[in-house]
């Protein structure tokens, strides 16, 4: 059984990934009420799916050492977390361009999921900075 502690960086990344996943459940943009019914977009349209997959990937990276037992895992490195986090941020930026390019409003009342995912990704980046500042595991 793996008895290593989680570490502050991984904990913050986990909270950010869960917040990002919750943001994927809500709408990411909606028209200003011009059409009937109003057009809306979610995280599962276009590049938003990349954000969802990155959040799930971050949670998988966090739990991987505990699932593997006492064997060391090559993916349990800050670089792996940074790559998956960067993919999530790039997917978010591409989805933001897509939402704004389609003429959809991304205000908090029309695109709550976009804002929750943005906050979640900021928390993930904060956790990546915390992980980079941690001492390496033995």
Structural notes for this entry:
Strands 1-2 form a two-stranded antiparallel sheet. The protein has one domain. The chain has helices spanning 8-23, 48-68, 78-101, 112-133, and strands at 29-30, 40-41. α3 (78-101) packs antiparallel against α4 (112-133). With 138 residues, it is mainly α. The chain is elongated and about 55 Å long. Helices cover 60% and strands 3% of the residues. It has four helices and two strands; from the N terminus they run αββααα.
Keywords:
2 strands, 4 helices, 138 residues, 60% helix, 3% strand, mainly alpha
Outline of the structure:
The protein has helices at residues 8-23, 48-68, 78-101, 112-133; strands spanning 29-30, 40-41. The chain has 138 residues and is mainly alpha-helical. α1 (8-23) runs antiparallel to α2 (48-68), α2 (48-68) packs antiparallel against α3 (78-101) and α3 runs antiparallel to α4.
